[in-house]
UniProtKB/TrEMBL annotation:
The keyword Zinc-finger applies. It comes from Aphanomyces astaci (Crayfish plague agent). Residues 474-496 are annotated as: Disordered. Keywords: Metal-binding, Zinc, Zinc-finger. One of its GO terms (molecular function) is zinc ion binding. It comes from the Eukaryota. Residues 475-484 have a biased composition (Basic and acidic residues). InterPro entries: Znf_RING/FYVE/PHD, Znf_TRAF. This is TRAF-type domain-containing protein. A zinc finger (TRAF-type) spans 408-441. The keyword Repressor does not apply. Residues 408-441 form the TRAF-type domain.
Length: 496
């Protein structure tokens, strides 16, 4: 049972796989890879090594291992951390002994029976001593567990070192990459005055690049045609014979052909549920193929996924933190061993993780920015939503914005739908049912009845005079066009 709890139990607590990079989390062994969400290398000399191993077949199982340092450095780092925790055990043991001595003195004082007037101070001392002893024991338990885990991990890593020449090969591979990058940068930045000198330099640089490509092709399984990019330069995934990880994919069926064609760049198919790449700025997202949002690039009329290979280096570790959970939801459960685990244990671990997230301290996630400054518990976030001043101000401004842009019916009944903020202008100068003041008679009328008012209702002297002049002019015009009979008879008599 002791061996099972310390070495074989999948539910035992172990440090996060990123402990070498500064992560101090304690995870269950079966969930140790869940926190590895994205990769970010600090330099172009970084690389990824992929090993298949005896893992559970798809669906919902995809794992990878990454070494940013040599195994010898990992062993030294683990032992250094173990020594530090051992020093913590030593100092905490001395503090625990002091608290135990105080507890012994308190018991001797209580046995004397003459402390009736000192009951209150003794009660306070007893509580303080109890908390001190409990705290020291908790620290000791954690420190001893970490020491044991670090020593065991260093032993496992040390046993996997079979060929020390691997480190030399990795260093040589990094030198080739650095030299190639220097040549590319020199070709871009060099601008001599003489065009012939530039042509000679470019020719020599291309020859050197071809030699480096031949050397790199011997230790990189990714085709150079895929990793060559005019915008990103040369990138490689790994320097081992098992390279070929472009992305982590989750299938709805078993794909035995994936094991044999792991180096091929696969296109999206109906059975592909989703995939996760190492793209810069989007590596923590999981693309859902059902939503028709695949990320791919058209190269030579063939749709292939090359984002992972083109930007796989020069990235850092990004954990799937509580803030990401709030934005993106729960992460994919590829590393949960749910198929071969007790469902009760799986549910209990999931609820424990949720409880830990609810009690964790998070920043205000309402988009308030650095001006909010609130650090709250995740479970208290709904209450914080109702009290955040910036959230209230933002909601008020948003409501006022939408209220102003809301389309409403014109209150004068013209039948048009106008934005609320444009109502004053519409009522003043655009509405056909607005009341306007006649500048001649001084009476008000509806704007759409302007012609009627001018013809029938306006009684201004100048308007009446104009109307009378028009009537007289029309009468004269009609008399000229249609002369009367009396005038025609008189003309005939005069002629006779």
């Amino acid at each position: 049972m002791t061996l099972h709890r310390s070495a074989t139990c999948p539910a035992r607590l172990v440090p996060c796989v990123n402990v070498i990079h500064g992560c101090q989390a304690q995870l269950r062994f079966r969930d140790r890879h869940v926190r590895s969400a994205a990769l970010r290398f600090a330099s172009r000399s970084g690389h990824i090594r992929i090993g298949g191993g005896d893992d559970i077949k798809p669906p919902w199982c995809a794992e990878f291992w990454v070494w940013l340092h040599s195994k010898e450095d990992d062993v030294l780092y683990f032992m250094e951390q173990a020594i530090r925790w051992q020093e913590c055990v030593r100092t905490t043991t001395s503090r625990l002994k002091e608290w135990q001595d105080k507890h012994k003195q308190l018991q001797e004082t209580l046995q004397q029976g003459t402390v009736s007037h000192m009951s209150k101070p003794l009660e306070t001392d007893a509580l303080e001593i109890g908390e001190g002893i409990a705290g020291c024991k908790s620290i000791l338990a954690e420190a001893r567990a970490r020491v044991k885990s670090l020593v065991a991990d260093s032993l496992v890593v040390a046993n996997t070192i079979t060929d020390p020449s691997d480190r030399d090969e990795d260093q040589q591979h990094a030198k080739w990459l650095a030299k190639r990058q220097q040549l590319l940068q020199a070709m871009e930045s060099r601008q001599p005055a003489d065009p012939r000198e530039l042509a000679r330099f470019v020719k020599q640089a291309k020859k050197e690049l071809s030699r480096l490509d031949d050397k790199l092709a011997k230790c990189v399984d990714v085709p150079l045609a895929l990793v060559q990019s005019a915008t990103h330069g040369f990138h490689t995934l790994a320097s081992s014979a098992t390279a070929g990880l472009h992305e982590v994919r989750f299938w709805s069926q078993n794909r035995p052909d994936v094991a044999t064609s792991m180096h091929d760049v696969l296109g999206p198919v109906p059975e592909l549920r989703g995939y996760w790449t190492f793209e810069e700025g989007a590596g923590e997202y999981v693309d859902d193929m059902a939503g028709q949002f695949p990320r791919y690039t058209n190269i030579s009329s063939v749709d292939v996924h090359i984002e992972a290979s083109s930007v796989a280096v020069n990235v850092d570790w990004v954990r799937y933190s509580t803030a990401m959970v709030q934005v993106l939801g729960d992460p994919p459960t590829a590393s949960y061993r749910q198929r071969n685990m007790c469902k009760v244990v799986t549910k209990r671990a999931f609820l424990a993780l949720k409880h830990h997230q609810r009690n964790g301290k998070v920043k205000c996630s309402l988009g308030c920015g650095p001006y909010c400054g609130h650090v709250i518990k995740a479970c208290d976030q709904p209450a914080h939503d109702a009290t955040c001043d910036l959230r209230r101000l933002r909601d008020t401004l948003a409501a006022e914005y939408y209220r102003k842009h809301e389309l409403v019916q014109c209150p004068f009944g013209c039948g048009l739908e106008i934005a609320r903020k444009a109502l004053p202008k519409h009522r003043k100068s655009e509405c056909s049912n607005r009341l306007v003041l006649c500048d001649k008679c001084g009476r008000s009328y509806v704007q759409r009845n302007t012609r009627r008012h001018d013809l029938r209702e306006c009684d201004a002297p100048q308007v009446l005079a104009t109307k009378l002049m028009v009537v007289r002019a029309r009468t004269r015009q009609e008399s000229r066009e249609h002369p009367g009979p009396r005038h025609r008879t008189k003309s005939a008599g005069d002629v006779l």
